[in-house]
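Hi P.,

Sorry for the delay on this. The queue was packed all week, but I finally got your sequence through. Input first:
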Amino acid sequence: SIGTNRLKDAYQFQEVPVPGLNNTSETLVLLNRQRMITSLKAEQRFGGDNGKIGGKVKLYGELHTLSPGTLDAHLPKPEQEELHSDYGYLIGLQLGIWNFGPRSHLNLFVRWAQGLAAYGEFAIPFGLDTEKRAKNAREFLIALSGNWELKKWFGVMVGAYARYFRDADPNKYDWDDGWEYVASVRPHIFMHRLFALAFELSYQGRMPAGLNPWTHTKLNPGIVKFSILPLLTFGKGTYARPQFRLIYTVSRQNEGARMTWNPKDPRRDMKVGHYLGLQAEWWFNSTYR
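Then the structure:
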């Protein structure tokens, strides 16, 4: 498939007001750089019919290109800024297996991206090189997702990922660069067709390549979260939707996480935080039962 996008930001788009006829004003578009994204996917499945164990292998790739342009083109040439063309690519692999248990699946994802693709299709690249290009940025991601259920009363969902990111500038020790990782497990107890009780335990952390910008020391932010989620659902199963949730979460930040807050922010001194809220979720295209 082939598509384009254009973010309303000076990186891709610029318009300026100019005088028009009869004391009116007009708006001229001076910069309009659209990002073109070409993607290709191939998938092979094995088994999975009639409740038997199935598996799949999926390959995925993207090519990102961005045309050149001139920023502030209405200014005299010495004050204009030339924006060079840019590009990037992404390759990914997914290995999946399902039907090894009731409503079960397990997926492993591996992805490598470079250049524009390392930032994502809707992100404005940052940490660019001296030519304001993203070609030297890179990202590596490995992720896991899974679900397993007992037919009557229990189910568990798991998810995790580890991601390495480095921006395009020549500095290898940026705070923006480094590893980030998340691991989460959410068991469910099905008490009734319309009611379940879920719990979630997760850990989120970062290992930045550079120093904390506030403390100028090496810190690795991390946070542990535990949630209790009474659920109102329409049909049993972890994927039954629509779903309404009451959620209470208690979280504990380590020193590295607390030092990421602005020094004047009161949350900087809070080791333990609490959250209470309501959530609702629909899947309009879901046929899962």
